[in-house]
User: Fold this.
Amino acid sequence: MNILSQAEVIQPAAGKAGSVPNIGDWSQTLLVRVWSALRWIRQRARAQQARKNLRVCETVSLGEKRFVAVVQVDEERFLIGGSSGAVSLLTRLHEAKSFAAALEREAGKIS
Assistant:
């Protein structure tokens, strides 16, 4: 819904060709426009909040169409790896002060 498409042309009053509408007409038109704009902004904000369940926090390219990324789904974070043919879950990241601390913890599990 476009606000500009809802614009109305102000017609001069009958018998007063070229006269300017009184302040009441202007204020009422302005209030209607402001109300419509606020309602549109509120609807857009709700739609964006509802969609923000999945977010790529950071991505590192490893060259030749390979990457490692941290993905957040709701409140959980995952480390994923990908190539041109597949995407794999490497680990679920637990709450850590930094990415380096989480990487060291996971490296310790491998050793």
About this structure: The first strand starts at residue 54 and ends at 63. The CA atoms of residues 55 and 72 lie 5 Å apart. Confidence is low (pLDDT under 50) at residues 9-13.
